[in-house]
Amino acid sequence: MLLSAIPNCNSRLISPAVNQEKGNQRDERQWMNPQRQLKFLQRLTPPLFAAFVALSPIITPPGSYAEAIDVQRGASLFGHACIGCHVAGGNIIQPGATLFLKDLQRNGVDTEEEIYNITYYGKGRMPGFGEMCTPRGQCTFGARLKEDEIKLLANFVKSQADEGWLNIGNGGD
């Protein structure tokens, strides 16, 4: 039984099957007592609730299943193509060009369209990732991204910037 694996739990409360093996029928009757079950659930509820809150997403939940999939795909693309330089929305190459909203605004890149353009064609030290990116020296030498992937990525970056990159685990901006 799964609950019997929880440390520091009294086995009499958790698994009557274990107690049956020991020949202790009295403990099984105690387990069936609704008051003991209620008491057990009351003790279990606060840690379960805390775990639920801690593991729930911090970003604003998407409005539909399709939006949730798009957010997940954007996060995955970010993890594959961007995280090397932009850990938690920062910038390890050029500190003034982070993905935090104040830097995006200062650099004139605070819309999804502008984020898309820079991601596709590159700018300054940032290489372009678009399939038709030119000139060659401005573009990544790695895998290129399709237009719809860059759109998802731009949407993800903009939404994270608006939220302060909280769900990525940064220490603030």
Automatic annotation (TrEMBL):
Matching Pfam families: Cytochrome_CBB3
This protein's UniProt keywords: Electron transport, Heme, Iron, Metal-binding, Thylakoid, Transport
Any GO molecular function: heme binding
Entry keyword annotation includes Iron: yes
Domain Cytochrome c: 69-161
Keyword set includes Thylakoid: yes
Superkingdom, natural source: Eukaryota
Function: Functions as an electron carrier between membrane-bound cytochrome b6-f and photosystem I in oxygenic photosynthesis.
Family assignment from sequence similarity: Belongs to the cytochrome c family. PetJ subfamily.
PANTHER family the UniProt entry points to: CYTOCHROME C6, CHLOROPLASTIC
Protein name: Cytochrome c-553
Species for this entry: Lactuca sativa (Garden lettuce)
